[in-house]
C-alpha cells in the first residue's frame, strides 16, 4: 500500500525546523504536524475540519463468563444512548466538532424503534465464547471486514479528513486482549486489564479465560483474518476493515483505547504499512493497549487515565491534532523575521 508522502514529510520537517520557535520547543506537537502533513501530502497541512467517528457496537459470548463488571444488557442500552446523543463520547464530540455515528454490528438485541440505518451493517447477534470455540465463522469475519470498508468509504465520501473508530460492547476488552496477545506472542497474564473495573478475582479468571483461548489456537498458525474469526468478534472485524480501508484511501485514523488499538494491530497485519496512517489518541489503562502501541511504534497524545471506550479518548485528542496542524501552518518562519 502507499505510504504517507515522504516528500511532504521532509518539507514539513524543514518547515518545523525553520519556525520562529526555539529548536524542539513544540515537542511532539511539531512531530504530529509533520505526520499530518505527510498523510495529507502537502505542507503546510490543513487543520482537520471534518472529523468523523464511527462506533462499532457488538456483544460477545464471553460476557456470560464473568469477564465484565456489567451485564450484556448494557450494550443495547448504550446504543440507544448514542443514538440520542447523550453518551460520554457524544458530549466530547459536541465540544470538539466531531461527527458521531453508531452502528449495530453484533448487538444481541433487536433494538426495536431504533433508526434502521443503525442496523444496516449487522452481521449477527453477539459472538461465540472465544475460549470454547471460534468467535465467528470465516464467512462472518469476511462480511464484517467488507462492511467496515464500506462504512469507511461512506465516511470518506462525506468529506472525512480524519477518522476515529469507537466501540461499544460489554466484554469487548477480552477479545481485544486476546487478539493483541496472539499477534505479539505474549501470555495473557502480561496483557490482561480490568476493563470496566473488575475485582482481583475476576481479573485472574479473565486472564485464565484468555489464556485458554490462546492455547486453543496456538498450534493453528492462523493468518490475521483467521485470528479475527477465532478470537475477535464482528464489531472488531468491522473496525479492522474500516481502518484498512482508511489507510488504503490515504485518510488518517486517530486511535482510541485497547479495542481500537487491537483492530489497528490486525489492520496492520492484513495490510502491512497501514499503521503509518494511524496516530494514538490516548493511553488507556489497559496494559495490552500500551504493549500494542509499542509494537506499532505509536506514542499516545494524551494520558488521562481514561478507559471509557466509545472513541472518547481519541475524540478528546482531536484539539491536539488540530493545534499541531495550526502551528505548522500559521507560525512565522525565522527567515520572515526582521532581525
From TrEMBL:
Stored InterPro entries: Nict_dMeBzImd_PRibTrfase, Nict_dMeBzImd_PRibTrfase_bact, Nict_dMeBzImd_PRibTrfase_N, Nict_dMeBzImd_PRibTrfase_sf
UniProt KW keywords: Cobalamin biosynthesis, Glycosyltransferase, Transferase
Reaction it catalyzes: 5,6-dimethylbenzimidazole + nicotinate beta-D-ribonucleotide = alpha-ribazole 5'-phosphate + nicotinate + H(+)
EC number: 2.4.2.21
Recorded GO MF terms: nicotinate-nucleotide-dimethylbenzimidazole phosphoribosyltransferase activity
Function field: Catalyzes the synthesis of alpha-ribazole-5'-phosphate from nicotinate mononucleotide (NAMN) and 5,6-dimethylbenzimidazole (DMB).
Record protein name field: Nicotinate-nucleotide--dimethylbenzimidazole phosphoribosyltransferase
Taxonomic path: Bacteria, Bacillati, Actinomycetota, Actinomycetes, Propionibacteriales
Amino acid at each position: 500500500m502507499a505510504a504517507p508522502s515522504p516528500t511532504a514529510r521532509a518539507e514539513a520537517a524543514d518547515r518545523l525546523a525553520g519556525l520562529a520557535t526555539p529548536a524542539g520547543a513544540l515537542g511532539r506537537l511539531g512531530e504530529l504536524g509533520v505526520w499530518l502533513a505527510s498523510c495529507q501530502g502537502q505542507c503546510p497541512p490543513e487543520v482537520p475540519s471534518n472529523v468523523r467517528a464511527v462506533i462499532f457496537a457488538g456483544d460477545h459470548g464471553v460476557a456470560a463468563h464473568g469477564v465484565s463488571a456489567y451485564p450484556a444488557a448494557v450494550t443495547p442500552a448504550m446504543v440507544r444512548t448514542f443514538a440520542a446523543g447523550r453518551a460520554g463520547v457524544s458530549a466530547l464530540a459536541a465540544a470538539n466538532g466531531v461527527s458521531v455515528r453508531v452502528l449495530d454490528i453484533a448487538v444481541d438485541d433487536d433494538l426495536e424503534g431504533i433508526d434502521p440505518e443503525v442496523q444496516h451493517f449487522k452481521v449477527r447477534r453477539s459472538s461465540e465464547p472465544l475460549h470454547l470455540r471460534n468467535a465467528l465463522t470465516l464467512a462472518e469475519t469476511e462480511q464484517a471486514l467488507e462492511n467496515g470498508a464500506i462504512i469507511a468509504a461512506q465516511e470518506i465520501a462525506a468529506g472525512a479528513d480524519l477518522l476515529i473508530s469507537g466501540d461499544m460492547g460489554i466484554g469487548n476488552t477480552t477479545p481485544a486482549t486476546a487478539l493483541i496477545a496472539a499477534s505479539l506472542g505474549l501470555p495473557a497474564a502480561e496483557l490482561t486489564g480490568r476493563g470496566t473495573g473488575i475485582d482481583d478475582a475476576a481479573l485472574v479468571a479473565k486472564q485464565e479465560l484468555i489464556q485458554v483461548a490462546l492455547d486453543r489456537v496456538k498450534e493453528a498458525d492462523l493468518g490475521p483474518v483467521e485470528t479475527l474469526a477465532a478470537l475477535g468478534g464482528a464489531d472488531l472485524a468491522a473496525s479492522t476493515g474500516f481502518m484498512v480501508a482508511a489507510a488504503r484511501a490515504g485518510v488518517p485514523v486517530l486511535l482510541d483505547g485497547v479495542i481500537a488499538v487491537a483492530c489497528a494491530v490486525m489492520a496492520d497485519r492484513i495490510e502491512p504499512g497501514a499503521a503509518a496512517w494511524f496516530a494514538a489518541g490516548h493511553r488507556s489503562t489497559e496494559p495490552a493497549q500500551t504493549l500494542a502501541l509499542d509494537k506499532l511504534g505509536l506514542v499516545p497524545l494524551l494520558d488521562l487515565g481514561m478507559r471509557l471506550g466509545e472513541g472518547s479518548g481519541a475524540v478528546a485528542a482531536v484539539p491536539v491534532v488540530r493545534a499541531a496542524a495550526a502551528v505548522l501552518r500559521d507560525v512565522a518562519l525565522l527567515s520572515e523575521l526582521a532581525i
